[in-house]
């Protein structure tokens, strides 16, 4: 066979391959188009378009420019689908939840750093199902009185810290959230231990947070790089991964060991590890696998519950300092109902609709999980005449949904009134941002009731005791800490007591 014939056969073979792929694609997509996407480059697709900063804003802008609520990007073979409106998220992530509730696999985060053992990052499967079930058994809304008791015990420490040292309110918020979660999960409440875990957990969460920024590590694009030895030039990521993985191990193991010691010393408190251990014991005995599940669920509570609720609480101080009229209306509601005789308790919530409306507005106005937690599709899907291929990474742009003018007119204004009737009661017909902020479908946040209770009790106590004033310019849209969750960078606000008996009121809670 001559040279020309060989070339002709090669070209014919390549063309046949392209035609077969095209026919297979047409059969899968039934000729339907992919969602609109920015124009990419050959082979690498939209690799250079994928944003690494304020991604939620860029995706919303793409949606506006492309005239679609669902947009698509293809980067080096990865399909990314972003849902900019709630209607699309409900259809794709809830109605079709069976096919859209897995999680994408990142070689760096999941394998090299070893974080796919926690519930939010675990792919679908029995391990995931059993861990979520174990979480829900203990942190179930039916057990709310248990969690609320824990919250009530942690709150006086926060209020006293803000009273004594108002300039350090951010640190006080952090210790409150870390303290509440390690108490509910591990039974740990000594101040020095809470400080210790706050530092360990920050250090341990830093590597996966960094790795979650798209494009941070080439190994996520070329997974075979994971086999390159650590000493190989350019393989610095392997050393980072080794150190990060060890921190991740300590993150999960150390508090578990302390919780077990407390349990064996007879603390008798009903925190998660002790209860799950006792349940396993009475159901046939505890084995290493069961203990591993308890460890991973414990680590899930911290990694999913602290930064999210903390970011929302931090934004509360800022919101009150720039919306004094909201603050005054809330304080009037508290004063009229409580008459200065004590701090609000959970059972007071139905009588304090404006406080509930403030909590709702906080989770809407500054979404702390702006792109949700990425889902992955496990089947081909069709939405509104658009084809969404299997294995797409699907992100719910919760930031864009929360600021959707059609559901929330004047979306950038902090307006709790939007949830109230003219008589000041909660309006059941008003859109509720809880249906956005806590995600969608089978992966819906199982800790939402704890987050909302934390915010209600904290916001009502802080508003009853203090006045918040603006002392410096701060841009809540730009001055944000970037990571998996979005929270404000450092800012100051004036905090002064508004009642004389603040300390007595705090003590009455203890
Ligand atoms: C304001 C506070 C919070 C916000 C905004 C929030 C939001 C979210 C979101 C958006 C997801 C992903 C849902 C999805 O994939 O569609 C999630 C998952 C999760 N959240 Fe929360 N969350 C908060 C507080 C908490 C708390 C306090 C806990 C624990 C006590 C918690 C535990 C979890 C867990 C375990 C998951 C993983 C669920 C799964 O993948 O099956 N969250 N949360």
TrEMBL record:
Which CDD domains does the record cross-reference, listed alphabetically? CYP64-like
Keyword Heme listed: yes
Write out the pathway annotation from the protein's UniProt entry. Answer: Secondary metabolite biosynthesis
Q: What is this protein called?
A: Cytochrome P450
In terms of SUPFAM superfamilies, this protein maps to: Cytochrome P450
Q: Which cofactor does it need?
A: heme
Which GO molecular-function terms appear in the entry? Answer: heme binding; iron ion binding; monooxygenase activity; oxidoreductase activity, acting on paired donors, with incorporation or reduction of molecular oxygen
Source organism (scientific name): Coprinopsis marcescibilis
- Which chain regions cross the lipid bilayer? none
Q: Which UniProt keywords apply?
A: Heme, Iron, Metal-binding, Monooxygenase, Oxidoreductase
Binding of heme, residues: 445
Say which family it is in: Belongs to the cytochrome P450 family.
